[in-house]
């Protein structure tokens, strides 16, 4: 019968994204029992058929903008499919938007690392709904510049209740926060913003202008940059006023994006929108920098999670698909492609969690504070930038089955570029590295000392290469990407060594730090046990 399906890999559901990830389990070995139990439950949910279908529906049934109701009244509402709300409700109930601001049981001293584990697992399921999660968590960092606003808003954000109703913030069970920074004439160059803010009394201002990208437009309030006499400043602008009326938001359209389709991104006009200043007049950039740092960590963690999910699909397919009478996983060339990809995913995951650890320990350890400041753009640059190429290769492992929309790999592939672009593209990250190098070069002394210590015998040679690259970059801005990638690869290798990854760490070091040119995956030679690498990092169920 022609309608009988044979030699097809079964759906990758019913397993556990937590238990099936030895590296993640190792990274969380010092977490409390209650946290590990929570991760176990999340891992089961992520791989359930129900959750996978929610992810699919949220991306097929995309958000829709309604500017007016049927009577002609301006309403500026974005409608989402119930699957999107279900995903957001679960993530908020788990505290993904607020846990680093709480004193969670069993999370003392590891709040960023614990949240990173939850964020990583959730990204394996669906990343679009994580945009408002990231913005809400990170926006609280900016609100700390105005203690009054933080006291007013933080308790409402940290209720762990998702409330999608269209009400004033004071009437809602829980709140989410968004951001409106970029404008069409400036993009990343936010100092070119033309949105004007005029004093309306006290700390309140009326904002008028246009924002080119404002994601999650149904958030309850937004951090918005606007110009005052003293310069660019930051404002908290609620979407709905206390009397229930709209606050001058005029949504022009939703972006028709390549990926991230479950999450709406809008263009908006502000017409005398009331906002309250955060921080000092003219200090808008300084006010948002802590927020930007947190979003960059999330970008790296989410990209690592998406890569993990994509490669898991490829390995699963290779174990079940037979070609010329032999399982794909037994083919030497396929083994080396999968193993080479697995090294990058392991390096990206270890490096992202290394950054999260530095966030947790920065207050008490000078070396960790240096790592957090100097290496955030490095980690964000490399981890996010390798994701599209890796997910393409994972898609190719499935052949045509990977290219069609029924397979989650198509969604992962379309999702991959957004984290490299959002909150600072590759060049912006590389230039940030040069900025640190120029203003506080001693930070890199601490970073390099840690890398050398963790690399062991290979440390001195690697540090020599990095110092030479720094010397070149100090007078040649165009070499910033070379330095940034070398720093990322060296730090990832060092973290794999510190974790005791053995032959996996050795293979990463020899293939990533040895200077051999690499254009595609599969560049492992016979010295490295490709099957061992795959089976260790992706154990068969």
Write up what this structure looks like.
With 541 residues, the protein is of the alpha+beta class. Helix content is 52%, strand content 13%. Strands 3, 4, 5, 6, 7, 8 and 9 form a seven-stranded mixed sheet that branches. The chain has a two-stranded antiparallel ribbon with strand order 1-2. Strands 10-11 form a two-stranded antiparallel ribbon. α10 packs antiparallel against α13. The radius of gyration is 23 Å and the shape is globular. The mean pLDDT is 96.
Radius of gyration, rounded?
23 Å
Summed up, the helix count is: 18
Which ranges are low-confidence, i.e. pLDDT below 50, for 5 or more consecutive residues? none
Q: Average pLDDT, to the nearest integer?
A: 96
């Amino acid at each position: 019968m022609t309608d009988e399906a044979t030699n097809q890999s079964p759906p990758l559901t019913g397993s556990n994204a937590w238990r099936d990830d030895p590296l993640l389990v190792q990274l969380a070995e010092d977490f409390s029992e209650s946290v590990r139990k929570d991760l176990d439950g999340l891992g089961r949910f992520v791989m359930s058929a129900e959750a996978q279908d929610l992810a699919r529906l949220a991306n097929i049934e995309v958000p829709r903008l309604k500017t007016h109701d049927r009577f002609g009244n301006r309403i500026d509402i974005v409608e989402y499919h119930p699957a999107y709300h279900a995903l957001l409700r679960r993530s908020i109930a788990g505290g993904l938007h607020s846990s680093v601001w709480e004193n969670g049981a069993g999370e003392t001293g590891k709040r960023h690392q614990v949240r990173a584990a939850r964020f990583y697992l959730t990204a394996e399921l669906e990343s679009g709904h994580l945009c408002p999660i990231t913005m809400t968590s990170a926006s609280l960092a900016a609100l700390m510049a105005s203690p009054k606003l933080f006291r007013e808003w933080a308790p409402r954000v940290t209720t762990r209740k998702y409330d999608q109703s269209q009400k004033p913030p004071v009437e809602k069970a829980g709140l989410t926060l968004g951001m409106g920074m970029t404008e069409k004439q400036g993009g990343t160059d936010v100092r070119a913003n033309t949105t004007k803010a005029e004093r309306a009394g006290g700390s309140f201002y009326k904002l008028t202008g246009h924002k080119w990208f404002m994601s999650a437009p149904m958030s309850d309030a937004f951090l918005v940059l606007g110009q005052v006499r003293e310069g660019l400043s930051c404002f908290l602008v609620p979407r709905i006023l206390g009397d229930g009326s709209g606050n001058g938001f005029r949504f022009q359209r939703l972006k028709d994006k390549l990926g991230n389709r479950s999450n709406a991104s809008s263009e908006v006009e502000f017409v005398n929108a009331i906002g309250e200043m955060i921080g000092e007049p003219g200090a808008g950039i300084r006010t948002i920098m802590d927020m930007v740092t947190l979003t960059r960590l999330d970008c790296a963690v989410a990209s690592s999670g998406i890569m993990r999910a994509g490669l898991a699909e490829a390995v699963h397919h290779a174990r079940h698909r037979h070609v010329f009478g032999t399982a794909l996983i037994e083919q030497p060339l396929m083994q080396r492609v999968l193993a080479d990809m697995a090294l990058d995913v392991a390096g990206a995951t270890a490096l992202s969690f290394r950054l999260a650890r530095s966030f947790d320990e920065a207050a008490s350890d000078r070396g960790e504070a240096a790592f957090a400041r100097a290496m955030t753009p490095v980690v964000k640059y490399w981890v996010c930038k390798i994701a599209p190429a890796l997910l393409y290769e994972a898609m190719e492992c499935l052949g045509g089955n990977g290219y069609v929309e029924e397979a989650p790999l198509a969604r992962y592939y379309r999702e991959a570029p957004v984290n490299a672009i959002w909150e600072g593209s590759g060049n912006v990250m590389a230039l940030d590295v040069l900025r640190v190098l120029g203003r506080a070069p001693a930070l890199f002394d601490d970073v390099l000392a840690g890398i050398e210590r963790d690399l062991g015998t290979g440390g001195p040679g690697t540090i020599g290469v990095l110092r030479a690259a720094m010397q070149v970059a100090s007078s040649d801005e165009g070499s910033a990407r070379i330095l940034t990638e070398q720093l990322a690869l060296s730090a990832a290798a060092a973290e794999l060594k510190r974790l005791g990854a053995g032959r996996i760490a050795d293979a990463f070091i020899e293939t990533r730090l040895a200077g051999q040119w690499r254009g595609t995956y599969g560049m492992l030679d016979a010295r490295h046990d490709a099957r061992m690498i795959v089976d260790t990092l992706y154990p068969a169920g």
